[in-house]
Amino acid sequence: MFRSSNNDDFSGSSDLNEEDMIKDPQPDASTSGNLRKSVSQSTSSLTSNGSVESISATRFSHGSRRKSKRWRGWCQRRGIAGLALLVLVFFISNSWMLYRIRDPGRAAGIKVKYLKMNSSTVSIKEELVKLGKGKKPQKTIYARLLAKASHALAEGQNKPEPKDLWVDHDNASSWKPCADQRDWEPSEGNNGYIMVTANGGINQQRVAICNAVAVARLLNATLVLPGLMYSSVWRDASHFGNIYQEDHFINYLRPDVRIVKELPKQLKSLDLDAIGSVVSDADIVKEAKPGFYKKYILPILHLNRVVHFVGFGNRLASDPIPFKVQRLRCRCNFHALRFVPKIQETGALLIQRMRQNMSRLGPLDKHLLGPLAEPKKKGQRSHSTKASRYLALHLRFEIDMVAHSLCEFGGGKEEQKELEAYREKHFPALIELKKTQKLPSMAALREEGLCPLMPEETVLMLAALGFNRKTRIYLAGAHIYGGKSRLTALTTLFPNLVTKENLLSSAEIEPFANFSSQLAALDFITCTAADNFAMTDSGSQFSSLVSGYRIYYGGGEMPTIRPNKRRLADIFVKNNTIEWSVFEKRVRKAVRQTKRVFSRPTGRSVYRYPRCLECMCSDQP
């Protein structure tokens, strides 16, 4: 049974079937017979050439013949013993390798220690931690498939990966970023001031900030530097200037929108709530169109000279939006929001260490890191791309996601009880909905692809796609529901999996402690710069922003894995009968169908789908 995040018992690979282990080659009877014959012939030849031939047969005594027979027998016995010793050594070494791959008590945690920060190579030490000692191993419904995955990874450890694994087949050479191009006059912002307090985590706040910029332009208003709402969930007291460069944001958008750092003194003393200038999320329909703001918000600006959007989130429609305003949203997201140097410096360290301190630059480095993207030593040669590439994985399996999904994840009654208690505290509306309406069953939810991918399903997907066991994987995300025990399958089958907490020393990560948004910014940089990026939930705001950034600046060279959970669910349901070769083919086909990037569909976010004429330019009609 899977435990809560406070339980570190192992799960998954502890139940791997022994019948799926790799068979060690054993010498057959014909091999041993041939070897004995060869040894016999070799020893016999000692008496049939050289100086031995010159000795007359008459000089051999009976004692000499007995010695010769004893010598041949000793050689034969020694040859057989040598063969047996060789087979024994091979068997022991092969069994030890399999034990390392499949033992659930090993490879559960990887702590990367850097003894020399400026060394040209990265020393990685795997601390093999035994968790759940003395406790009954947890079970998993995927034990059979995990055993087959372990077998496949062991066999393919020195084989080349599929050719298309690290390549984006999307032909995007004709699309270029051009949201920085302007062809309008600056806004004077003389209709009043717009204040915004963005809610949610850093990803929701990023969307809210750029939407606020667009609203300010629509209403010809002055935007006060956005504030970030403190949330009991995220518990991050960061301000805008703790995450993004304020002066760059203001100056870059000056030709578009007038932005100030604070309200004028004459407006600071106003009781905005009392005069009706406070507008909450509840007052604005979701995906509100420009006409809504002109009809209901502009009159407030004219009357009170200020409006405060509290909890402003996804409150501006994707369509219909004027072409130039839509381009402004892209300009804000991809050009104006630049992380502060503290975050850029630490992000650069993470990228450098994931690339094993190699100096090559990725296509997105300069856009994410600014001047820090340049190599410290001029003229330093770039190393092999293959040797330093890495996969970034966003595993969306936090307790809020798990609880809200209403799915089950193999933990039985104890798990359901824990998740229900979480819903009662954090999602009371969902509890009421369960009481008043008949909701789909857990099996139906999973069949429709509405359940988060479990870590066990994720590792099976990666193994089926053909990633080598030695692949360097950067794991992004918050605390995984189930704790370390839930990651056992991942860390066992892919031991080179690390997080920012592993890569950074305690002194390097300490400035970001208790600031979840700043930690998420580090994940954003490292995932966006990765040679390949895999998401487990395409609806995640983080994954959407990362994939959008990779599309905008990647030039079709930054592959992203976007699994279709509904298609995968149809494959996983056959886990007790499907053969590994069939599983591989079906998973690869399902993922390949979602790898291609299309132009932005109407009504979809430009932050996720920037391939549109508002954000990017194409030289093809």
TrEMBL record:
State which pathway it belongs to. Answer: Glycan metabolism
Task: Please name the source species.
Answer: Coffea arabica (Arabian coffee)
| Highest taxon, organism lineage | Eukaryota
GO biological process assignments = fucose metabolic process
- How is this protein named in the record? O-fucosyltransferase family protein
Mind listing the UniProt keywords for this protein, alphabetically? Carbohydrate metabolism, Fucose metabolism, Glycoprotein, Glycosyltransferase, Membrane, Transferase, Transmembrane, Transmembrane helix
Single GO term (MF): glycosyltransferase activity
Q: Which family does it belong to?
A: Belongs to the glycosyltransferase GT106 family.
Its ancestry begins with: Eukaryota, Viridiplantae, Streptophyta, Embryophyta, Tracheophyta
